[in-house]
Predict the structure.
Amino acid sequence: MPADIQKLKDRVTAKVEALREELIELSLRIHAHPELAFQEEQASAWLADYLESHGFRVVRGICDLPTAFRAERGEGAPRVALLAEYDALAAIGHGCGHNIIATSSVAAGIASSVVVEETGGTIVVIGTPAEEVYGGKVLMARRGAFDELDAAMLCHPGSRNAVYAHALACAELQVEYFGKEAHASSRPEAGVNALDALIFAFNGIAALRQHIRGSARIHGIITDGGQAPNIVPGHAAGGFLVRAADEEYLEELKVRVIACLEAGALATGARVEYRWGEAQYAAMRTNSPLAEAYRSNLAAVGREVTDDESRRSMGSTDMGNVSALLPAIHPTIAIAPREVSAHSPEFARWAASEDGHRGLLDAAKALAMTAVDVLVVAELRQQMQEAFAGEQRTDA
């Protein structure tokens, strides 16, 4: 590594250290005030204000989303984006650690911006609401939020250090059955049981699971199963998530799942209505050259990926939709023991712990140094684009 690049990296990591107490306070403040998807008014305002106080040009409410924002410092290309997520989970709070994602991306943006006048280019921090439920980045991608960027990054807290994310494409499905209510004891023959239709569909999907690829997932819940046990349910409703390792197979699965829904209607005589969610999550395409640059910087802060990275899915993320548009990475940094599951109250506690703070600061430093690499090393940018183009040809 040329000495001048190392000096730039030393400056950006020193900036993170200088902001240590402020960053921890910001992370804890977001953690203590969890807000659900598209309701993240406090978190988005705190993050935008903090960036503004560090010389960023901030535009709030971008893409017709009140809690989204874009902050920039520098001019022209290359443009490196750090993406902030800050929505919480219902009943659990920050059980996915988005307080750490938000603060580490903002910290990396501020730290890397201190050298941008020397390197040239632009540091962009984009606030992206509603990752957990609605796929805010999907909507933002459609509305041009990620156009003309050269790289996009964030780091997700977890129970292991990992560079490559293997997230599944995902589609949300809502279903309703409409039958006919009747007295369940005195005149059951007069009713059409909507709940039976939904249960038929669940059983059909359970049978389907035996015959789908091992990387695919289908899971759901019943949200309305009737009003009382002595009334034939005239209405029933449920929600499903359908996931696959690629969009092509996801489309195949969607057809087969709908066949199960229709079978429930046919078996019972109930009428079925279904609707797919507006925001479909794409599979994550990790850009290898960018990921390897991040791996080197992660090692520089004392963290290494010491075992083979599992291909087991980490779930789904709307960062996949960003990775379909430009070179992107979605690494993970360990803040909790291996046995602690994300989306749990226990993980929420770790997200406000000393280990959580260390993860926040290490992630910010590694991301900031990787931003320096992208700004300075033209060969890396070329490799990133070549890898991205190759991934697009593979998809086609």
